[in-house]
# Entry
Amino acid sequence: MKVRFFPVLLTLFTAMTLQAETKPASKTELATIGGGCFWCTEAVLERVPGVLKAVSGYAGGKNANPTYEEVCTGRSGHAEVIQVEFDPMVVSYEKILEVFFEAHDPTTLNRQGADEGTQYRSVIFYHDEAQHVAASRAKLAAQAHWPDPIVTEIAPLTKFYPAEKYHQDYFKNNPTQGYCSFVIKPKMKKLETKGVIPKG
# Structure
């Protein structure tokens, strides 16, 4: 009895090819970081290729479901942060942190420009131990570019609270608003010139 290997191998090869072609898309990941006013941080991170979604919100505080007014007092303990969903096949967590350290001054404690208070602190909230290690390495690497000590806090994320709807996509929806015109636009231009983010 003859065994016909070729048809069997062809069938197996076809099955494997189909399986490869129908493989689901890569799993997305989350990063949660704060570098001053979340309107600005969101505008920058939305321009990073591979970032699928950026949501302004609050993290690192004491009470649940904080409001913008509560966070603005500085007494809730929350920081204004951005939570980004990204495709790790397109952009790495390390690259996002690299952009983060370029997009704000991580050496000023609880302040970015005229925005002052603990809610504006520089912070990385890590989601797992791998992110914890990556954040520590990124902070160390970034120090080479700053003459003053980096004060960025690195802490585990306990809970992220999305900010009110009017804060989402603020720069995109309010390009002529004063803060957008005089603070965010110049920062975006600077980052474009340096090649940190692509031109919009």
Summary: Strands lie at 29-35, 51-59, 79-86, 111-112, 115-116, 122-126, 153-156, 160-162.
